Structures are given as C-alpha cells and as structure tokens.
Amino acid sequence: MNERQNADLPFPATLNQTFKQCGRIIVFCMVLCFIVRAGFAIYVATLPIEGDGRLYDQVAVSLASGQGFVFKNLPLSDKSPGYSAFLAGIYLLFGRNFLYVFLIQGLLTTVVCGAVVALGYAVTLQKETALLAGLVMALYPPLALVDARLYNDSLFGFLVFALVLIVGYAIWSKKLWPWVIGGLVLGLAMYVRPTPIALPLIFLVLAIWRGWPLRKAVLAIVVLLICTGVVLMPWAIRNQRLFGVLTPMPSQGGRVLYCNWSAINMVSSDLGSLPEDVKAKVEAKTGYERDKILKRIAISQIKARPGEFVASCFMKSVRQWTNLFWPQKPSKATLVFAVVNTLMLVVAVPGFWRRSIEPLFRGYTLLFVLYMTFVAAVMSSAEARYAYWTYPFLFILAAHTLTMIWHKRHNTH
Q1: What is the model's pTM?
Q2: Which of 118, 220, 266, 312 is the most exposed place for a label (fewest CB within 10 A)?
C-alpha cells in the first residue's frame, strides 16, 4: 500500500508525481462531473428562479444594461456584488439564458473535481483515495443540483478551493509571494460571500503550527490582507459615496442575525414580513442604518432569551450538516440527505488523526468544519449549501478511510 512516508514532503514534488500517477483519473472524473452537471442544467433550465436567485438575476440584468448595481431602483447594499457581476458577464456574452449560466457553473465545479483528485493523491499518495474522492465529488447530487440554480455556491466554492490550494502551497513552501495571489483571490471570494472574513486567522494558526516563525507568519497575513484590501477597496469607496459607510461588507449582518438567531422562532428576511413594531423602526432607513437597528434588536432579544439562543445554536449546528431542525416537517429527500451526510462525516472523522494524510490538510479541513459550524450556530440560517465549499476536503478524508478499510479487508483475505 502506497502511503506518504514523510509528512513534510514538499508540495511541488508531490504535485508533479500526482499528474504522472493520476492524469487519467483526473480526466475521467472531470468528464463525468461535467456530464452530470450538464444533465441537471438541461433538466432545470426552464424552472422558475427561487429565493436569492431572483435578486441576483435582477441586479445582473441592471448591471448588464448599464444601470449599475441596482435592485428595485435602489443601490445594492445588502448583498455582495460578485455573483451578480458574474451573471451580468454571462448575460452580456450569451444573453439572459440560464442554461449557459448553469453550464458555466458546472464547468467551475468540474475544475474543482479535477483538483480534488489531484489533491486527494497529493496528501495521501493513494490512487484509490484520489479516484473515490473524485467520483463522489462528481456524483454527489446536492452539489450537482446547486450548480443548476442561481445560487452563488459554485462560484464561491471555486474561489475558496483555489484560495486554499494557493495558501496551502505558501505554507508548505514557506514562500511569501503566493500570499499576494492568495490575497487577491480572497478579495474576489469576499465579493461573492462575506464568509471567508475569518479565514486569514485560520491561515495564521496553520502557518505557525507548521513551523513558521511568528514574525514571518504575521508578515504573510499582513501581505494577504493588504492584497485583499486592494481588491475590496473599490466597493468600499462606492459604499462610502452612496451610504456614508466605508466598508466592503454588505449590509446584511444585522438582518441575518435578527431573522435567524432563533431556530425556534425564525423571522422572514423580507422587510414586509417583519413585526409591525420592528418595521416601523427600519422601513425608512438605508440598508446600513437598518442593519445596525436590527443587530441591536437581535442582541437584546438574545439577552432576554438566553436559553432559546443556546438551544438554537445546537439545532443550527446540526442543521448545517443535515438540513434538519427547520420549522417545517422534513421531506423524504431531506431525511435521505441527513443520513448520507451524517455517514460522510462519520467516515471522514478518522482521517483527522491519520498520520498517512498530510498534517496541514487535516488541520485546515478540521478548522473549516469548526468555523462553518460556529457561523451556523451563532448567526446564519444554517442552510446546508452554505457549507458545500468544505465538502471537497471532507470527501478526501472519507475516501481515505474507505480505502484503508478496503485495504485491511483485502489484506486479511
């Protein structure tokens, strides 16, 4: 059985070996991945747009027509602009045809699928692990379905996976220049979704853990943040000009916290559905003013009902990974998803302490899972798709566990 013997083997050497050993597997999994996504795209391209997709679409149409980031005749403030800009670019090239959107999103995930195979081999030196991880990435239905919807998960997952590869290489190689590229990619990812805001802290912890001197590790994070700031500055300046707030962040943190801090008494995020007393306080305010008011109301409610908040944190932690504990009764598809995802997590967990897997990979996968669980528990609605960007890493751990089980059974016979 071919396993990594030296956990400190330089990443570039392992990458070169990966393409020699797994080139055909990479191509096979990528072709399979795109075929599956093309099938989903063709099937659902004519279905109605749902949820946030309506907002993204309307902003993209406005942007493509030269009216800027506008929603309902008002400047966009409560959503990140990156995904709408992505859609607008596709609309300009191909017209407002959702089939092209879904195919391009499927292509992004197809690239990630190939990278999953490469990374799976690079961190385990097992072709079976690489193949199994690639197959799961290609065939896992929830990931294929989200590629065929107007959601930002495909673009976000692609950017974050690229970011992790770049920063992983930087930490492995102990070079500073990849942090520049990482900062630029982090900025692009934050234009799509604000979730990665705390990832630099995780990268700092991992760099120090992997033997970087503290001063050099801090310098690397500073370089990362400066480059991220350069990317985000145009949007921050735009917000300062339009709303008087110098920030690249969307005005949604307070609204998300207010509507979702309680898993028991969730509130619709639609302004018209807010309680009358709350609506009276916020309806005449700008996005950022409204956000501050809703944040204050949410914090006061949490202080008044701490037991409900603690229970909700637990419920949403489970919901993030199983899609359970919603106010409505779970469907059969939800129950199947919960069972399959639970099994995936159970199988992946042993990989966190398996020495034959690159330690840095195990470290950032564990921290990503803990980070997403914390975000889900404290403030987000904990939709399962919000954690999809972590699944490629978990698939590799789960695939390695199954490979080890297969080898042990094979050797015993």
Answers
A1: 0.92
A2: 266
Contact present, 199 and 186 (Cβ < 8 Å): yes
Left (φ > 0), alpha (ψ -120 to 50) or beta: where does 244 sit? left
Nearest to 151 by CA among 99, 92, 102: 102
Task: Please choose, from the candidates 361, 385, 382, the residue with its C-alpha nearest in 3D space to the C-alpha of residue 373.
Answer: 382
Query: For residues 75 and 346, what is the distance between their CA atoms, to the nearest angstrom?
Result: 45
Phi and psi angles of residue 285, each rounded to the nearest 5 degrees, phi first: -95, 160
Backbone angles phi, psi at 80, to 5 degrees: -70, 145
Ranges of residues in the chain whose predicted pLDDT is under 70: 1-15, 267-273, 412-413
User: Is 245 strand, coil or helix?
Assistant: coil
Query: What CA–CA distance (Å, rounded) separates 40 from 257?
Result: 33
Burial of 130 (0-12, 13-18, 19+ CB in 10 A): buried
Q: For residue 360, give both structure tokens.
A: 């840095």
> Cα–Cα distance between 58 and 61 in angstroms, integer?
5
Q: Would you kindly state where each structural domain of the chain is located, as residue ranges?
A: 1-152, 153-192+195-247
Nearest one of 203, 251, 255, 211 to 227, comparing CA atoms: 203
> Distance between terminal CA atoms of the chain?
15
Return the H-helix or E-strand segment holding 71. strand 70-71
Segment 62-98, tens digit of pLDDT = 999 999 998 888 888 888 999 999 999 999 999 999 9
Lookup: tokens for 82: 């990156």
User: H/E element holding 74?
Assistant: strand 74-75
Count CB atoms within 10 A of the CB of residue 247: 13
Pairwise CA distance, residues 229 & 232, whole Å = 5
Residue 62 has which token pair? Answer: 């406005």
Answer for the pair 86, 155: CB distance below 8 angstroms, yes or no: yes
For 331, the 3-state DSSP assignment is coil
- Which amino acid is it at 354? R
Which strand (E) or helix (H) includes residue 205?
helix 199-209
The Cα 156–Cα 112 span in angstroms is 11
